[in-house]
Design goal:
It is built from six helices and no strands. About 35% of the residues are buried.
Length: about 100
């Protein structure tokens, strides 16, 4: 497997609004390279575009679970904040502040 291959495909498919295929590609990237935080962020965006807030939240939680620590929590804060969830961003920053 080549890191970022499925990510790139997912990004292209997402921009083409082929969301089901984009989701599959991002999930494949995450399965092969769970440390690729940007794949989670892009998948989060696709779920939001599909009005699937439950899966969007679940994928951000999954990212932090698979990549524990302050860096992932701050990335989660940046991701959710950039896409309009200021309350969620504040919560992730709070959690990051108390992390080691």
């Amino acid at each position: 497997p080549i890191e970022a291959y499925h990510f790139a495909r997912g990004d292209i498919l997402g921009r083409m609004e082929r969301y089901d295929e984009a989701i599959a590609e991002f999930k494949q990237e995450i399965a092969l390279f769970p440390q690729n935080r940007q794949a989670y962020a892009n998948l989060y965006l696709i779920y939001l575009l599909r009005n699937d807030e439950a899966n969007a939240q679940r994928i951000i939680d999954d990212m932090v679970e698979k990549n524990p620590g302050k860096t992932s929590m701050l990335f989660a804060a940046k991701t959710v904040g950039a896409l309009g969830d200021q309350r969620g961003a504040a919560e992730w920053r709070r959690r990051a502040a108390s992390a080691r």
